Recover the amino acids of this structure.
């Protein structure tokens, strides 16, 4: 019998029962809650007279709606009344049910997918859900993490289980080494370009190969985060010493004897050498250049030195229509050079790229330079209060401010514009976030997804530039 | 949850691949703490010419006359025809809530994004996967015939066209059963509470560090 993949092992270890029709009930070790997708779930519990199954499996923080400007006045001073109600509702629900929440001005508050691993709330080998598709991020720790809808948030609160079907296994192997200036974000954008925005639908994607083995946990989180942009609900990286070193000493990580016991158990969290994957994609790391998305789907991505595609080179009508529509929305011409796209704003942040390494990468590029005159605004939004604190200890905030970027309070910010940070109609933004969908960053806004280093390079150049030219 | 058994209604063609949930219901409307009232903002940025605000009255807003659901022949649409990867992106269940609130009972497409597909079943909305050729043919027929209606029969797992053609579709037995009977997943899962407790005891013995740590 062939060996098991990491996904198979995680799935089997959490199987409570298999239903007659082949669907499975799996046990969920951890649920992370935020203010947007949880109010209706708590309301559902109340209406049905149900209590959460296990309080200590949950952790919460507000992130989508919180303002990122000065906010020491607390929730009551959130200007947008609807946002205020949503953040308050999370506070009230967590207080009522006794769930641990890092409230808006707690230093441990942050974007759910930054906060949860940072606290050790997510550990190798756990199953985790959150009402947010970027929960895939947490797979970087060798955890089986699903994004779910609000009904499933309620289901997990009430039963500690999720009804699911076993996924297929895909291995994305990136061999060799990355070139200078090529980051985890470029790797994952390139992967999405290769397999397409729906290429991973129905699969759990494991990222393997030397490039991921040598990647930091922050980088692995960036990669797993965007598995969903390739259609896969789950992204995974096998556990190794880098994982164990990352987890050690975090608030909710095991200590003492339990730590040793846990580390021993985690050694098995790798795919067996003879495991069979339903699909394998192999990419050479050295072939990856810094990436820029030109269109309105993350798969619409090219190298910074390439051109915007020409629909005349395509044969499939649905694809031609898609390119034409994207060109129109983005205000771009076929065959236009990526480096000729004029930018209006820059956003460095989001659950994809707001961790300390991301900020270091960006700071390195802007240090001693100034934001270009045509850039209306360049935001740097750390992923959590603790990331912010560390960056400030390293003096990164000063480098950003000196260069003319704004240094903000932690939250989702301009990634989805549910807070005051948004693009104006028609504005182009170099963004380190994860989705370039129409209107995502603001009505009529035009998003180009890039790495933190590329966003920083764009900020000081005013248009896209190959970051390798600035860091030679 | 609403039952879904048999439904006949006007079909409308959304001729575009990769319709994401940001498009189905833009982010500014996710601030509601309720499950209802999202229908007036379904496809807000495609449907209206101005930028929609939460809690805004929508009756006087300028309509995009080219948008399919604004055309008079598609008024009262309850069956949506779509292209591949419908519902991709954000996990927001507000997307099926908005479709359902607008009056859509079924979406037919060659493929769906998984989280969206799952979310539909929790809300009495039936997503149907047909082959690209079958979907193509339905697009052609609906565009050629004003007042074109489709019947969706979940019990028999068929879509019936006005000419009487029957197109079979696949669906999981469990999901079908829940939808036909309007069953609540949580109630069903709690019937297995003993299994969950037994698993939990085993888990706690094997990984004690996962219990009592977060407080």
């Amino acid at each position: 019998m062939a060996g098991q993949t990491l996904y198979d092992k995680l799935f089997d270890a959490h199987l409570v029962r298999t239903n007659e029709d082949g669907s499975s009930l799996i046990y969920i070790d951890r649920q992370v809650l935020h203010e947007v997708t949880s109010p209706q779930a708590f309301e559902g519990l109340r209406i049905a007279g149900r209590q959460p199954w296990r309080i200590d499996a949950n952790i919460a923080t507000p992130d989508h709606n919180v303002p990122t400007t000065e906010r020491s006045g607390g929730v009551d001073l959130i200007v947008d009344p609807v946002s205020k109600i949503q953040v308050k509702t999370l506070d009230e629900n967590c207080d009522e049910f006794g769930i641990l929440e890092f409230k808006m001005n707690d230093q441990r508050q942050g974007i759910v997918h930054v906060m949860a691993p940072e606290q050790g709330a997510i550990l190798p080998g756990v199953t985790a859900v959150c009402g947010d598709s970027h929960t895939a991020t947490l797979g970087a720790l060798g955890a089986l993490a699903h994004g779910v809808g609000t009904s499933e948030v309620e289901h997990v609160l009430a039963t500690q289980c999720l009804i699911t079907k076993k996924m297929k296994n895909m291995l994305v192997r990136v061999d060799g080494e990355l070139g200078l200036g090529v980051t985890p974000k470029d790797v994952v954008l390139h992967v999405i370009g290769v397999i397409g925005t729906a290429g991973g639908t129905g699969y759990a994607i494991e990222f393997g190969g030397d490039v991921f083995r040598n990647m930091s946990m922050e980088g692995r989180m960036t990669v797993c985060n965007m598995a969903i942009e390739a259609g896969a609900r789950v992204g995974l990286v096998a556990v190794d010493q880098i994982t164990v070193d990352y987890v050690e000493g975090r608030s909710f990580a095991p200590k003492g004897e339990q730590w040793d016991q846990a580390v021993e158990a985690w050694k098995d969290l790798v795919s067996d050498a003879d495991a069979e994957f339903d699909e394998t994609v192999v990419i050479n790391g050295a072939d990856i250049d810094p990436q820029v998305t030109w269109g309105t789907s993350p798969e619409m991505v090219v190298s910074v030195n390439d051109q915007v595609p020409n629909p005349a080179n395509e044969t499939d009508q649905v694809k031609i229509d898609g390119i034409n529509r994207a060109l129109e929305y983005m205000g771009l011409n076929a065959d236009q050079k990526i480096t000729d796209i004029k930018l209006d704003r820059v956003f460095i942040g989001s659950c994809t790229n707001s961790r300390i390494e991301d900020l270091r990468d960006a700071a390195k590029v802007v240090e001693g330079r100034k934001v270009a005159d045509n850039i209306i605004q360049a935001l740097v939004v750390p992923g959590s209060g603790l990331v912010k604190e560390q960056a400030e200890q390293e003096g990164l905030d000063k480098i950003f401010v000196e260069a003319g970027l704004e240094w903000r309070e932690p939250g989702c910010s301009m990634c989805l514009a549910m807070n005051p940070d948004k693009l104006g109609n028609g504005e182009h933004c170099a963004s380190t976030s994860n989705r370039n969908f129409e209107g995502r960053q603001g009505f009529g806004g035009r998003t180009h997804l890039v790495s933190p280093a590329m966003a920083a390079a764009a900020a000081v150049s005013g248009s896209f530039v190959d970051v390798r030219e600035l860091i030679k | 949850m609403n039952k879904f058994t048999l439904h006949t209604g006007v079909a409308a063609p959304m001729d575009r691949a990769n319709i994401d949930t940001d498009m189905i219901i833009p982010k500014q409307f996710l601030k509601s703490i309720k499950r209802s009232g999202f229908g007036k903002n379904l496809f807000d940025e495609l449907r209206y010419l101005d930028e929609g605000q939460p809690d805004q009255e929508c009756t006087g807003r300028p309509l995009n006359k080219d948008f399919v659901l604004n055309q008079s022949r598609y008024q009262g649409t309850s069956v949506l025809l779509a292209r591949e990867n419908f519902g991709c992106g954000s996990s927001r269940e507000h997307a099926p809530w908005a479709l359902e609130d607008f009056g859509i009972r079924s979406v037919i497409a060659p493929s769906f994004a998984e989280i969206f597909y799952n979310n539909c079943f929790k809300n009495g909305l039936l997503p149907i996967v047909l082959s690209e050729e079958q979907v193509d043919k339905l697009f052609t027929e609906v565009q050629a015939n004003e007042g074109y209606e489709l019947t969706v029969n979940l019990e028999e797992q068929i879509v019936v066209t006005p000419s009487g053609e029957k197109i079979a579709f696949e669906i999981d037995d469990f999901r079908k059963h829940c939808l036909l009977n309007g069953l609540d997943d949580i109630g069903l899962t709690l019937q297995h509470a003993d299994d969950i407790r037994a698993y939990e005891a085993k888990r706690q013995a094997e990984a004690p560090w996962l219990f009592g740590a977060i407080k």
The two ends of chain A are 51 Å apart (CA to CA).
